[in-house]
Please model this.
Amino acid sequence: MPMPYKKKPPLGQLLIENGLINSNQLKEALKKQAQVGGQLGSILVDMEYITTEDLLNFLSQQLGIPSVNLLHTNIPQDVLKLMPLEKIRSMKALPLSIDENSITLGMVNPRDMLSIRDIEFSIGKKVNAVVIPATQMEAAIQSLMQNPGIALTGEGIAKEVRRYEMKKAPPLMALLKYLAGSPATDMLLTAGVSPSIKLGNDIKRAAMIPLTPADCERYAREIMSEKDWGIFNEMGDFDLAVTYPEIGRFRVNLYRQRGSVSITLRRIIDILPSLKDLNLPEWIRDYALLPQGLILVSGPAGHGKSTTLAAMVDIINSSRKCNIVTLEDQIEYLHKHKKSNVNQREIGLDTKSFYEGLRHVFRQDPDVIVVGEMRDPDSFSISLQAADTGHLVITTVHASTSASTVERIINMFPPHQQNLIRSRIADNLLFVLSQRLVPTKSGEGRVLALEKIVNSDRVKNFIREGKTHQIKPQMLSGTEEFTPLEASLAKLYQAGLIQYEDGLFYAENKQFFKDLAKPS
Model:
């Protein structure tokens, strides 16, 4: 009785079983194959999950057929003449060498018996099929089309492969690996320009051709499930988080513009910076470990406020046994549970808004409440209530100076409530930081300059009396409770960390900075 035919597992499963790729990589490659077509092996090579050599060796072992790397092969012109170019293109079969009785044929699919028999009949010789990668076959065909009538060389095919790589958008995984290994925080993928990274406040574009709308849509569909894609098409924008174990975790925002998809990818960092790493003073640690009060961090967008909050949360998490609840518009840093429980809630995913998250926060029994950004009077009123009732509240506010941070909050409220709010802030405030990230002199990053107000008795009186605007003029020379931004900038300049022009640019009081810096 004949043995039943046992179907061989598919290529992807075999590669996993042999430890050449993992299941997540196969899933991503199959998703891309469903979107753009092509051979799975070549897609895995394009996505840098497997090398060409490893793939060829594996295919050769599995098929029992030799493999050939065209990048190391020269094919004489008289051998190429054995097959018309149209047949080479349609069959994906390339004559490599010939002897008295047989022809060696490089094929993308060496088990295509119909093509093999057709070639044997037309040439009159036995075909010895060998396997070659689909990408190298396409490069060889392009080279033959552009240079008809001449021999093919491995060097020429390699040039064509590189030209092909330059013409196509890079694999998403390659872009994510680049972002994860760079000092950039974000990557921007938009049709009409090449992939860009955000370094500080500047965009740096990759040296490659612009992305097409099809490229951006392909990236989006690699990232999203079919269900997410349907919601995105209906809504026009979408937020999600993706994790690739070999690369890292990323926050993704997708939106439509001019009829095409644009994508912003932000790397979520699990290595939390220390106060020293951030150029923040050590006295912050003492305040961050207090059981009750209000801490405010201000500054323009993109100047490190969220990072400062993350550093303070890590100090508490490492030192106190307490319950921390954070409300974040985008989670940029993942906190592991250390001595504390850290519950990170993302706006739009875990709760509708900062206000909605704060409205229910007391039911979650928090000791520390961290609010990514204070945007409305209702949210701030709840935060003040929390600080009043024995909680530590840490939050950020968009404001240009430490003094204007307090005034911005007070001005959120109607005039008849402002005196009460002043009094409550004066009673609960611990300190205010106003931050600026200034380009370093070397041009290889940014360094933190800050202005601080510590809530001393004198500062409390300024706040209660509505005279916060007088804090800087009356304490300009610097005191324990107040350090002007200009003093921090001047110190960085004198230490050789920043350019004089950059210090002057960020200084609010230009003349005061000039007096302190005294450039040579």
